[in-house]
Please model this.
Amino acid sequence: MIFNERCQHVFGPVPSRRLGRSLGIDLVPFKTCSYDCIYCQLGRTTNRTIERKEYVPLDDVLEELEYRLATGAEPDYVTLSGSGEPTLYSRLAPLIAGIKERTDRPVAVLTNGSLLWDRDVQESLLEADLVIPSLDAGDEATFQWVNRPHPALSFERVVGGIEEFCRRFRKPVWLEVFLLKGLNATGVQLERIARLVHRIMPDRAQLNSVTRPPSEDFARPAPRDELEQAARLLGDRAEIITEGDTTQHNEYCQARRADILGLLRRRPCTSDDVATGLRLHPNEVAKHLDELVREHVVVCERDGERVFYRAAGLLKEDRKRSRDG
Ligand code: SF4
Model:
């Protein structure tokens, strides 16, 4: 197999607030997910499913990983994440075993947690080193409103699955809670979430909120004081992760950041434009843009349905000229 800069299933390393340099593995086609979260920073789900299958050939993924490791990827973590829900991939166990044959870097799994009630999913994750599931609601109605799950998924089933998995898994579980202003960041909803967190007992409860343009305009970021209040309610295991740690970049990261900035200095682009223009994985682009926006090096703004990114300091007339033509 011949690889170019844009491998099909392996991307990065990308700077991650929690995982340092994270080498991502994308196991499902773009926006194949069991949820359609209103805050999703990858846009609306185009294939909402709970069907588990080998969406991409296992051998291809492992071959790409080997190539990226051999060509200097140097990750802190190998992370199963990407542009949908990784536990929909049916060959997780041999994949994790295959990763471990190729590197001693720890394997992290970023999952929405919706399938953790499934014993097969549980078993297949047991050899991972870190699992980060999500929980964004304290009851069924809010679950339906925020996560817009596949109809086969009920709130109780999902929460029960996360709880059971936490009991079985011997390594760290960090539960991510995505807080949205006016929806789940305060009041009864937050109290219910706090009760569930105490029941699930993850090693950490990580509070996150909107930093990139969400799938739906009405998904608004929880302000800092609400996040701090929530962290107090959740107790010692809570931490706020919306604002960045200083991430160390390797040469690969630096080069991709420079490419993206170079492009945005010439013209404002959507995230898709950047991915297509630079032949990068959409997740990789999203991570870099997230960081560049937080550093105020890049500015993002909506124009109707579309979200454009531009280098900070690009003049208004330049922006108009670029968009018009
Ligand atoms: S945020 Fe994650 S779980 Fe929610 S729709 Fe997007 S990819 Fe799926």
Observations:
- The mean pLDDT is 89.
- DSSP finds eleven helices and twelve strands in the chain.
- The pocket of iron/sulfur cluster is lined by residues 33, 35-37, 40, 42, 45, 84-85, 112 (CB under 6 Å).
- The longest strand covers residues 10-16.
